[in-house]
Design goal:
By secondary structure, the chain is mainly beta. It is 11% helix and 31% strand.
């Protein structure tokens, strides 16, 4: 996609990768995102996002749709709330093979203005996620 940039670093052992998923401008009615991680040894891998927080200021004027009173997004009340309250952004965890990763795995859906919950990614304009991929230790039976 034109509005996505992915940077990846793979360890020398080819068992760990760090992938940055960056969005330039958000697009309306965009299709689902996929994450590709290439260059890993064959095997099973666990992929997880680095946890991050979402501050109220990120929602801007959308807050007026859920508040009983209208508050200025740049006003004192919202600035104070932003200092003391934040939401946990979607923490994704996947387990799959190196082959699946090289083809691309589907990611959780992005926030589109309504219906925020724990499995929705909140990227918006110039948002990003950091994915950590590590080979699972498989013990022989």
């Amino acid at each position: 996609k034109e509005n996505k940039v992915i940077w990846e670093v793979v360890s020398e052992e080819k068992e760990t990768a760090l992938t940055g998923f960056f969005q330039t401008l958000a697009a309306a009615a965009e299709s689902s995102d996929k994450l590709k991680v290439i260059g890993l040894k064959k095997g099973r891998y666990m992929i997880r996002t680095r946890p991050q927080r979402l501050y109220i200021e990120r929602f801007g004027c959308l807050t007026k749709h859920v508040m009983p009173v209208e508050l200025s997004p740049d006003g004192m009340i919202m600035r104070v709330a932003n200092r003391h309250y934040s939401l946990k952004d979607c923490v994704e965890t996947y387990t799959c093979s190196a082959e699946a990763l090289s083809s691309g795995i589907p990611l959780c859906e992005q926030f589109i203005g309504t219906g925020y919950h724990e499995k929705v990614r909140m990227l918006g304009d110039f948002g990003s996620n950091l994915y950590i991929t590590e080979k699972e230790d498989v013990q022989p039976k």
